[in-house]
Amino acid sequence: MKDFTAYLNQIQEIGYVEQISDAIIYVSGLPEVKPDEIVFFETGDFGQVFTIDFSLIEVLVFSKNSIKPGTRVARTNDVLQIPVGFELLGRVIDPLGNSIDSIKPLKKAEATRSIHSIPLGIAYRKTITAPFETGVSIVDMVMPLGHGQRELIIGDRKTGKTNFLMKTVLSQARKGNICVYASIGKKKIDIKQLEEFFIKNDIMDKAVIVASGSEDEAGLIYLTPFTAMTISEYFRDQGKNVVVILDDLSTHAKFYREIALLGKRFPGRNSYPSDMFFNHAQLMERAGNFITEKGEFSITCFPVAETIQGDLSGFIETNLMSMTDGHLYFDIDLFYQGRRPAINPFLSVTRVGRQTQSNLKREINREIMSFFTLYEKMQSFIHFGTELNENIKATLATGEKIIHFFNQKYQEIVPINLQLIFFVMLWGNVFEGKDFEAIENDFEKITIAYQSDPKIKLQIDKLIEIDSFNKLLAAVKQQSQNILKLASKYGK
Amino acid sequence: MKNDNLIYYDIVKSLKTTPDAEEFLLQLDNLLTKLFKINPDSLEKNLKKIVSSKFAELFKESFKINNINQNDHSAIEKFLNSIKNQIQQLNILKLQLAFDPTEETIDTLFRWIAENYGSGIILDIHKDESILGGAIVTFNGKYKDLSLRKRFEDTFQKNKIDLKKTIAR
Questions:
Q1: Any CB–CB contact under 8 A between B142 and chain A?
Q2: SS3 per-residue string spanning A269-290
Q3: What is the CATH number of domain A82-357?
């Protein structure tokens, strides 16, 4: 960027700061200024044109430095651009593209991109066909997702949303996909923990964290998801599948509301401005499955929304539900019951994920869902205790096992093929007579064997090629003892 | 200026710079506060006491032209407020010069602007010796650096290599 005088001499237009109201600064002059244009203050700060009025221009500032009335302002004739490139991988940056981690300074970027780009049109989009693996059994088997899907992660605070997202990032980064994590208005300690998690799991070279802290200027927090999406678009155009996480858009909406109210925009529902829907929808539209010059590549987007006491009918929540391809609902009640992840399969939706599944996976999915419905019904008979008949008792016992099976440890990810085999083993009563601790132990051994012994991996992967559930059930029953024997060498 | 504002024309025309306008507004405010005091002095007396002789004459003439009864304080207040409003709406042309201009220079500049851009513009002149000569003009959000400093900078920038060679010799 040039300095203030250079812009003044180049554009030959000047403005003066008239009023200041927190993140919004009112400027007079600059007769030919354009919407979203970047303006430069003589103090060295800069801002983005927010609204153009008859007499004054509203400018959204990105720094906390105090700007006084009378300060001169120059136009730049340019919109906000952020640096993009492969050198961003492994870095924590602020929404303006400046490095905020403790490592060496950021190299000069390959290119710059405007943060407000027009989403690619229908001619550049393709049906979602590739399955997306999260490493979380209940999602991959019950609520499957596809590459390019926009899936809302919704739930009360502290219900394991971020933990699920971390597992997803871990799973995808290990597959070589790029992960962009937008941490919107979070505490600095949370951002640091996120960075440490990426470093600890050795996936930082596949990730970019775009972070704004809760103490940052509202303008900067507002930009965070747009910067993350711009970076995702860059990697998509470079021939990479990208996962972008916007954590969280409820906070983003609150900061946008603050800015809009300061800018004296008319308050709508819950005092949010009238373009609140547009603001998030334009962001969601930039994700999807695309046809690029380098082939078919996707941006899978996980916006996060926080509910209050499980209320799904809030303004921002319903807005986001209507612009995404489904949502995973993290139920606080299930969380208190000890379910991890606390995803409620009955209140969650996946609109495009099932079309990416193979016949076998679809059959298993149907089997689980119908069993869950039956199990839910049977739950109401529990209080009859000993008077229950054997059938109900068996259903409840299997249900407990299945629920237990879907519980995953903190940061534990399971490859999809293993998830299927484990489920079929449970369903086929391979572990009859064993308690769940012993079953878990066996699962752990098989997992280690799968990851370290190519022979076992091949055997399991071959089983998954079977195209019907009943055939797989028979095959697993036949081969399970052999698999367990081979796996017994591994683990504890 | 619009035709319906012609009644203030003489007053507005007499204000050439922002300090002039500020001084006039101060005197006008003082006059307004004196209007409704208990046992107020006559307007004549107030004009003599508070307002400079130059502006006092202009006020008297305006009252006469607009048939303002000097004993009707409400009418006077309304009239003075409308003048105040008019002055606050004047366009300001900001000039940065390398020297302090004389009254004569200001007159010439003011006349030239009025002839070329019409009335209703006052000058806000600042002295900045660092510009060496010429002027920096700011008007209605437009900025033009016509200073000697800028000329030098451009010339140095343009002939950077040649100049370096000449100095090295």
A1: yes
A2: HHHCCCCHHHHHHHHHCCCEEE
A3: 3.40.50.300
